[in-house]
């Protein structure tokens, strides 16, 4: 599709408010300044000074940046054509922008921002997967009732993977698996035995013995690599979170609650993420999973991209495609089609334009709570423990996550990971056990819990509780 044609005819630029100007929000804000079809004159962060600094870093003239501490100041700055920097989304929610880009990555503030935006008649580009994993389908439903769109955002893997899956389905491919590469590669120097990943290095000479998939059973190879790389983390809450969002939009399902998450070279993906009948790891088809890209220093990265593994129903066609460099399994039964990119806010504008100009959400038409990302203790946790969320990946010490069938909040139900985050335990939880809703102090009603209860009421009939 020629995107110039698809987005032609816009009477004016689509105006955005960027909420959260670190990482994704910062790159989106900078890219918006280069675009004819998009405007971003409103930014919100923990304080107005931080938002103003983000505008300056994006190349906006400082004389045009107006830190605002009230709705009146914000309205005056907007009317003057200046850039509005605020420390509270409530101060700017009624300004006449089209789309709120929620990119804080914080569950409670993000839920509040999304709810305020919908109430103010805005579309929402929901970058914060932490919010999405708890109440995404409910937000989509509530916005649609008001003629507005909540959408996932290109530039992040969930949206890109949902798009790739739908592309494969439209073309009639039989999807065996779909997923993404983890954020950090394992870069192995076969000469020195050194492995580098995410700024950490180890000597792992034994990995050389497990470099090739040839002659190995998939499960044995994956287990041997995991053992060799035991000093590195091989499960990440963000990966599980993002694939849970994809499952809710597409109906794809994890083969196991914590995913297989194999360490794999790019050419091995259609071998490993295939069904048992084809020598792979999977017990069924239409599975979701993640792999950790294993490569030499001189090989290109998968770059946190996304993929589908499809069945080679027409072997002759795929033999031709293999000759042209496409990735086909050794058996010839499966092949991988992949997009080796996720450009964060640099490519998010297409999702924003789709929502504002065409009323289209990247989730598709059947986004529902199929899976919950639930919290599971990795150590004994005492009553009174605060499950503080922190770090770049918004994790909780002593807690991991699993993907389990979605269920309404209630007695005996596992707690969604990002609803449990920053809550206090009212009773002890043993290592290996899920943290239950009953284990958490949920006495104070927050935007996130309110939205989740409304989502539960919409998707889970009272008779089923």
TrEMBL record:
Keyword Flavoprotein in record: no
Entry-linked InterPro entries: DRL_cat, NAD(P)-bd_dom_sf, SAF
Keyword match Secreted: no
Protein name: Flagellar biosynthesis protein FlgA
Superkingdom of source: Bacteria
SAF domain mapped to chain residues: 372-441
Pfam families membership: DRL_cat
Keywords, comma-separated and alphabetical: Cell projection, Cilium, Flagellum
Organism from which the protein derives: Rhodoplanes serenus
């Amino acid at each position: 599709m020629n995107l110039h044609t698809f987005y032609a005819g816009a009477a004016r630029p689509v105006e955005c408010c960027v909420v959260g100007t670190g990482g994704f929000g910062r790159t989106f804000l900078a890219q918006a300044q280069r675009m004819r079809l998009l405007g971003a004159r409103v930014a919100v962060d923990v304080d107005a000074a931080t938002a103003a600094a983000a505008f300056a870093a994006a190349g906006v003239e400082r004389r045009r940046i107006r830190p605002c501490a009230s709705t009146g100041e914000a309205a005056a700055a907007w009317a003057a054509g200046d850039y509005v920097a605020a420390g509270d989304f409530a101060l700017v929610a009624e300004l006449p922008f089209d789309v709120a880009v929620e990119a804080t990555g914080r569950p409670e503030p993000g839920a509040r921002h999304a709810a305020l935006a919908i109430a103010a008649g805005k579309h929402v580009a929901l970058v914060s997967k932490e919010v999405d994993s708890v109440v995404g389908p409910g937000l989509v439903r509530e916005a649609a009732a008001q003629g507005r769109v909540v959408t996932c955002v290109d530039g992040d893997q969930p949206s890109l993977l949902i798009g790739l899956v739908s592309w494969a389905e439209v073309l009639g491919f039989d999807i065996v698996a779909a997923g993404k590469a983890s954020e950090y590669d394992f870069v192995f120097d076969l000469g020195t035995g050194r492995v580098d990943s995410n700024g950490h290095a180890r000597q792992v000479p034994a990995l050389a013995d497990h470099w090739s998939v040839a002659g190995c059973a998939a499960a044995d190879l994956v287990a041997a690599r995991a053992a060799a790389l035991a000093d590195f983390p091989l499960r990440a809450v963000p990966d599980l979170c993002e694939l849970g969002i994809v499952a809710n939009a597409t109906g794809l399902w994890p083969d196991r609650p914590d995913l297989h998450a194999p360490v794999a070279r790019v050419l091995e993906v259609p071998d490993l993420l295939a069904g048992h009948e084809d020598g792979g790891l999977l017990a069924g088809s239409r599975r979701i999973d993640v792999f950790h890209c294993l490569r030499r220093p001189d090989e290109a990265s998968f770059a946190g991209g996304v993929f589908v593994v499809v069945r080679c129903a027409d072997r002759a066609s795929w033999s031709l495609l293999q000759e042209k460099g496409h990735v086909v399994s050794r058996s010839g039964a499966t092949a991988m089609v992949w997009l080796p990119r996720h450009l964060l806010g640099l490519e998010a504008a297409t999702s924003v334009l789709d929502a504002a100009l065409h009323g289209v959400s990247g989730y598709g038409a059947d986004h529902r709570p199929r899976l919950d990302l639930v919290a599971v203790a990795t150590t004994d946790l005492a009553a009174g423990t605060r499950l503080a969320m922190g770090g770049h990946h918004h994790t909780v010490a002593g807690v991991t996550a699993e993907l389990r069938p979605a269920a309404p909040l209630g007695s005996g139900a596992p707690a969604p990971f990002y609803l449990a985050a920053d809550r206090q335990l009212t009773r002890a939880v043993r290592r290996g056990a899920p943290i239950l809703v009953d284990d958490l102090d949920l006495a104070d009603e927050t935007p996130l819990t309110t939205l989740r209860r409304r989502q539960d009421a919409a998707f889970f009939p009272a008779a089923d509780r």
